[in-house]
Specification:
This protein is mostly helical and 465 residues long. The protein has 16 helices and six strands. The strands form three sheets. A two-stranded antiparallel sheet has the order 1-2. A two-stranded antiparallel ribbon has the order 3-6. Strands 4-5 form a two-stranded antiparallel ribbon. Helix 3 runs antiparallel to helix 4, helix 3 packs across helix 5 and helix 5 runs antiparallel to helix 10. The radius of gyration is 24 Å and the shape is globular. The two termini are 40 Å apart.
């Protein structure tokens, strides 16, 4: 994609610099009006002349917000506001160390999204959200069309709340609620832009080369924003706070050590009633941990899921209808056309199906908790979604990681959209203990392997906790 964009000429700016599309009265690019200053600063960030930080995006957003108070219908002001709000969320949604810190400490390796069943080649790692959440990197996101399916990863990551563990550390609920509100505002601004069928503007890329954007890019970017909205809403639906009570001790020991994860708590002492097994009440924090916070978050997730399919479909249609030149951020060339067609034919139908009933995807089999206890390090976290999976355990750096495997898994989000479980702890397994007092993971007893219909075919053994 970078090679394609490099073919764009600077002469394109002459006719397109003043972004159009049925805007309001504020169209000057002068240095004194808020729209002109906002546009100029946004271009500096897009080109790399100014660092992309949370503070920078918030400052530019204030300029576009001021412009909208004077001209509520200005299309570019709505576009700029949406880009800045999404930029703030992108930098705070992942522990990238960029722009004022994220939700998790440190940085994480690229995550692998789910894929249509029967993929011949294992999906590549997706770009991190600090990239996917910035519209001038939209082509990088579409280079892996499966990235949009990653919004469903919180569903599989539900298992992390149920493993014998003492809850989610750093579960900053207020922060994630603020992120969701910013995403809601961003999609509202994008809706105003999408109401202008002739919208067109330019932004420079990291080399200063102007990129042309029309509603094709706006719709595709909207799909990315909506996908993060799905993930954040799913992560908020259930309480992950462990509360003020001291957490139960972990039950998995470090390899070759006596204490549980270096905390000096022998595993057998967790079996409080000495019945030879570990029940959820012995290894999970008490309620309200994993109880339903608000079913409205699940309704938001379903609404956003439908919006992802709708916006992505519209964006692909517009991009494929273009002339085969290189003047656009997403050009209709042979290289990008193959990616767009895969998004249209393989990804969008699965997203649409996931919003309306059971869907089967190919997922990366999670790393077992015993392996994690030996292999996790301060900067490593098992594959999953950064907005839902817990942070890593503070143990030694990886010595050896198992080769990833993939398996199909059928999920039915609609079962929970329609009838959300009140307490996820009701699905937690009971573990028999061996003669040494350690849990037998392979003999876990699940009260409902279907998890209230979320896994209509039952949770496969490879995904047991």
């Amino acid at each position: 994609m970078k090679r394609l964009r490099a073919l764009v000429t600077f002469g394109l700016v002459v006719g397109l610099y003043g972004c159009g599309g049925g805007g309001g009265t504020v169209q000057s690019t002068g240095s004194q009006d808020p729209l002109g200053r906002g546009r100029a600063q946004l271009e500096r960030v897009a080109s790399g002349a100014q660092e992309a930080t949370v503070h920078t995006f918030e400052s530019i957003w204030q300029l576009f917000d001021e412009a909208l108070r004077g001209a509520p219908g200005d299309a570019f002001a709505h576009f700029g506001a949406a880009v800045c709000l999404s930029g703030v969320v992108a930098l705070q949604a992942e522990g990238s160390g960029v722009g004022g810190g994220g939700l998790w400490p440190g940085g994480f390796p690229g995550e692998v999204p789910p894929a249509p069943p029967g993929v011949v080649v294992a999906p590549a790692s997706m770009a991190p959200w600090p990239v996917l959440g910035l519209i001038w990197h939209l082509d990088q996101g579409l280079a892996n069309p499966l990235s949009l399916l990653h919004m469903l990863a919180p569903v599989v990551d539900l298992r992390y709340g149920l493993i014998p563990f003492y809850g989610y550390a750093q579960d900053d609920v207020a922060r994630r609620q603020q992120l969701l509100e910013k995403l809601n505002q961003a999609v509202a601004h994008l809706a105003q832009v999408e109401a202008k069928p002739d919208f067109v503007c330019t932004l420079p890329d990291r080399d200063g080369v102007p990129m042309t954007l029309t509603l094709a890019e706006v719709y595709l970017f909207d799909a990315c924003v909506q996908s993060l909205r799905v993930a954040v809403a799913l992560s908020l639906a259930y309480v992950r706070d462990v509360g003020e009570a001291p957490p139960p001790p972990p039950i998995f020991t470090m390899h070759g050590r006596e204490g549980g994860l270096g905390l000096g708590v022998p595993v057998r002492f967790v079996d409080l009633n000495r019945d030879g097994q570990l029940s959820p009440g012995e290894y999970l924090p008490p309620s309200p941990f994993l109880t339903l916070r608000d079913a409205a978050y699940l309704r938001t997730a379903q609404e956003a899921l439908l919006a992802v399919a709708d916006r992505a479909g519209k964006g692909v249609t517009l991009a494929l209808a273009r002339a085969g030149d290189q003047r656009f951020l997403i050009p209709n060339t042979e290289e990008s056309r193959a990616l767009l067609q895969r998004l249209r034919d393989d990804v969008v139908p699965l997203i649409q199906q996931a919003a309306s009933g059971p869907v089967t995807l190919e997922w990366e089999v999670p790393t077992g908790p015993q392996v994690l206890a030996r292999a996790s390090g301060p900067r490593y976290r098992p594959q999953g979604n950064v907005l839902f999976a817990p942070p890593v355990w503070p143990v030694e750096p990886p010595l050896e990681l198992p080769a990833p495997r993939r398996q199909t898994l059928t999920i039915n989000l609609v079962a929970w959209f329609a009838n959300p479980p009140v307490d996820l702890k009701a699905f937690a397994p009971t573990y028999p203990l061996d003669a040494q007092g350690e849990p037998r993971i392979d003999q876990a007893i699940y009260p409902d392997p279907r998890f209230g219909g979320l896994f209509p075919e039952g949770l496969p053994g490879d995904f047991w906790f």
